[in-house]
Amino acid sequence: MIKKNKAFTLIELLVVVAIIGILAAVGVVAYNGYTEGAKSSATKANHSQVVKYIAAESQKCSISSSAEAFGAAGFCATALTQARVTTQVAIALASFKNPYSTGTNAIATSGSMSAANVGFIYITNTAGSTTSLDIKSCHTDCATADQLSTAVSIR
Fold first, then answer.
1. Is the alpha carbon torsion for 52, 127, 136, 73 positive or negative?
2. By residue range, what is the domain housing residue 93?
3. What is the β-pairing status of strands 97-98 and 101-105?
4. 134 Cα distance to chain centroid
5. What are phi and psi of 137, to 5 degrees?
6. In a designed cystine with 106, which of 2, 50, 89, 98 is the match (CB 3.0 to 4.6 A)?
7. In order along the chain (155 residues), what is the average pLDDT of each group of 10 residues?
8. Could you give the angle at which helices 82-92 and 10-63 cross, rounded to 10 degrees?
């Protein structure tokens, strides 16, 4: 009686390894595209939320000088200035993280938009105005088409 062993040949194993390698290479490329898109969308969402937050909190102060706004009790008791609001927004929204660098805060009160600073949301004074702030961010490589800019009234 002859015993017949059942096994894969070396060629069959090499073909399977090659197929898995090709699938893995395609998967990595697709995954990188998905993550870049998610980071861009998160930056756009953060920008929108900051604009809405500043507008809503400023409105609280317009309604009542005793209102709690920007995460601080008694904040509305003193006149709103660009500097006060900018500083307090950075404190109140410290939990916003930069999607491109999750170890850093997304809110910045100084600096400039460049490819090295993608994902940050810059809050600066509107030139020629004492009653509004510019909210700027870029969501990919900071080319002009990738920049978001919104002016928000603080009065």
1. negative
2. 10-153
3. antiparallel
4. 17
5. -160, 160
6. 98
7. 81 95 89 86 94 94 89 89 91 92 88 83 88 90 83 87
8. 140
